[in-house]
## 1
Amino acid sequence: MGSRGVNSSATATRLLKEKKWDALVIGAGHNGLIAATYLARGGLSVAVLERRHVIGGAAVTEELIPGFKFSRCSYLLSLLRPSIIKELELVRHGLKLLKPISQSFTPCLDGRYLLLGPDDEQNYLEMLKFSKRDADAYPRDFLDLLLSPTSKVLNKWFESDVVKATLAADAMIGSMASIHTPGSGYVLLHHVMGETDGEHNIWSHVEGGMGTVSLAISNAAKEAGVHIFTNAEVSKLVIEESGIVIGVLMVDGERLHSSIVLSNATPYKTFMELVPQIFLPDEFVRAIKYSDYSSGTTKINVAVDKLPQFQSCNLNHPEVGPHHTATIHIGSESMEEIGLACQDAWNGLPSRRPVMEMTIPSSLDKTISPPGKHVVSLFTQYTPYKPTDGSWEDPTYRELYAQRCFNLIDEYAPGFTSSVIGYDMLTPPDLEREFGLTGGNIFHGAMGLDSLFLMRPVKQWSDHRTPIRGLYMCGSGSHPGGGVMGAAGRNAAYVVLHDVKKHSR
Ligand SMILES: Cc1cc2nc3c(=O)[nH]c(=O)nc-3n(C[C@H](O)[C@H](O)[C@H](O)COP(=O)(O)OP(=O)(O)OC[C@H]3O[C@@H](n4cnc5c(N)ncnc54)[C@H](O)[C@@H]3O)c2cc1C
C-alpha cells in the first residue's frame, strides 16, 4: 500500500497510532504537504493522513494505461509560489519544469490560427493577422478585469473574435459562470499572476507530470521529519465538549491524538462531514453549506498513437512543433461560442460544442509515454454535475460526451479520434468521489468575488483559523484560493506556529 517513500509498514502504522502528534494534517494534497513541511521545520512532530493510495490530491500522476502517465487533474504549473520552490528546495527534491515553446495556440476552422509566445514582436505579428487594433492594444492592464464581466472588458479592448475568445477561455476555467457575469474576469487574473523561473505568466509542463510537484514536496517534508500515511482516511474530528480539537477518528475506528489539526479537505467536507455540527455557529454552517461548489469541468486524459496534426496552422511539423507545446484552445473561436457552451450547461445539458483546453505534455516530456506515442490532456467545459438528459453513471452517456470532444478535435486535427488508444474521464461526480472535490469544483469552491480574499472560505474566517479551537484550514478552499500555488498551505502553517508560540508563553 502507499506510494513511493510513504509510510505503509506495520511499524509505521503502529507509530501513527501510538504517538501523540503535535499536529495532524488531513489530506496529502500539495497544500497539506507544504503545511506539514513548514510545521515540521518549525519544530512540531507532524503526520499527514491521506485517504487515497497515492499522495498529491489534484496534483498527481497516475499510470492508468500501461506506459502512459497522466496528470489526472491539474496539468500545468505557474502559480506555485517562487518562495516555496526556493525555501523547500523543490528543484533539489526532483522538480523540473519544462517551458513550452509557445504559450497559446488557437486554431480556426477558416484556416487561420493565433499562436502566442514569449516574443512580443512575434505576438504583435500574430495579432496583426486578425486585427491591427488588437495588436496595438495587447498587452493590457488586466486590473480592469477584477470587477467587470470578462465580455465587457474584452469587447472594450479588442475587436477580433479569436483574440477575445482566446483570452476569455482562461477566465472560465473551472467555473459555471458566464463570460457576461460581473467579476468573472477574476479567474483570468488568477491565471496570469504566476510565473516560471521569474518569467511572468508562463505555464509550464512538469517532467513526470504534476505528481512530481507533490513528490518533490513530500521529499522536503520527509527530510524535515514529517510522516506521511496513505490509505488513511479520517472519518471525524474528535472535539472536546468545550469545543477544542483533541484528535481525529480514522475510518478503521482508530483514534489519533493531537491538539492541532489542519484540514486540506474542502470546506464543505471539513465542516459538513468531519466536524460534528453542534460545535459550529449556525451562521457559519449556512455559509459553508450554501457556498458555490459547481464547476462544470470534465477532464479527459487520452493516450494516442500519434501527434495531432492541425490542418489550420499548416506548419508542416510531423514531429513536435511550437504549437504542440502550447495550451491549445479548441471550440473557442469567439465569445459567442463560449457563451453558447455555457448556456447549454445552464439548461442542464453537457455543452454540444464543449470549450476545451488541450495540452500535449509528451511534446516536451519523454518520460510519460512510449516513444512515438503521446499523452493528451483535455480540460473540457461545460458539464453539469447532474445532467437532465442522462446520467454520468451510464457508460453510453459518458462515451457519447468523450466522443463529442474527440469529434470536435477532428474538425481541427483530422484523424484525432482514430489515434486514440484509450482514455480516462473525470466528470464532476468522478472528481468528487475520487479526489474529494465537492461538487467537482476544481478550486475547493468557486472563485467568485463573493468567495475571495476576506470572504474565503467564509466571511470572518479567512486567516486559516476556524470556529473550532485547534482546527485550521490549509487547502485551496481557504485564502488565497485554488490552483497548485501552495500559498494556503504555507500561510496556514505560519498561523499555526504563531498560535503555538503564543500559547506556550
Ligand atoms: C481537472 C483539474 C484540472 C486542474 N488544472 C490545474 C492546472 O493545470 N494548474 C493549476 O495550478 N491548478 C489546476 N487545478 C486546480 C488545482 O489542482 C487544485 O486547486 C489544487 O491541486 C488543490 O490542492 P489542495 O492541496 O488544496 O487540495 P487537494 O489537491 O484537493 O488535496 C486534498 C487532499 O485531501 C484528501 N482528503 C480529503 N478528505 C480526506 C479525509 N477525510 N481523510 C484523509 N484525506 C482526505 C484528498 O484525497 C486529497 O488528496 C485543476 C484541478 C482539477 C480538478
## 2
Amino acid sequence: MNIAHVTPVSGNIHEDRAQAIRDTLRDAIVDRRLTPGTKLSEIEVGTLFNVSRTVVRAVLQMLAFEGLVCTERNRGAFVSNPTPEEARQVFASRRLIEPGIINAVIEFMTPDAARKLRAHLSEEIRYQHERGARARRAEIKSSGDFHLILASLAGNAIIEKFMDELVARSSLVIALYGRSGISSCGHSDHAAILDALETGNAEKARELMLHHIDHIEADLDLRVKEGFALKDALAL
Ligand SMILES: [Zn+2]
C-alpha cells in the first residue's frame, strides 16, 4: 500500500524529514566527519533522528543513489569506499563538465555574480587562517562550494545537480586518497579563475579550471596498494 496516496500530508512530512536527515548525513560525509567505510546502522540512525526504519531506508537509498553510501546484502549500509578507478572517473567527469560551466558562466557573468564569488572567496581565505578541526571542515566545504556556486551561475539545474554529486564524491575520494590531507582546493587557483572570468577571458578561465582539477587529482595517491597474501602477512 502506498502511504503517500492514502495520507498525502503525512507522506510529505516523511519526505521532508527524510530529506533533512539526508542533508545532515551528506554534510557529515562530505566534510569527512563520517569517513569511508563507516557503518550506518538503520537502528542507530533511526534512534539518533527519532524516525522509523522506513524513513531511514529512504534516506540511505537517496545517499546510495548519489554514490555516497553503498549497501551490502545482509551487512547493511556503509559510507562508500570508492576505488582508485572510480576516483579517476570522478575527476575525468569534472574535466568534461567544468570547462562547459565556465563557458556558460561567462555568458551570465554580472557584477552581482562576481560580487557573490568574491565574497565567497574571502570566506574561504578566512577559514584558511583559522585553526582547529571545525575551521578545517568549514574550509573543505567552502572550497567545494566555490565550484557549486559557479555551477549555480551557469543557469542549468541539471548541471547543478551533477556538480553537487561530483563535488560530494570528490570530497569522499580526497578523504580516502588525499596525500596532504589539508584542503581540496588551492585558493589562489580559485582567485585566478575568478580574475579570468571577470575579464571575460573564457579560454584562460577554462585552462585554469582544467589545471586546477589536475592539481587536485595530483594530490591523490591512487596507486593500487599491493596487499600481502594471508600467509605472507603472517610470515608463515
Ligand atoms: Zn577548487
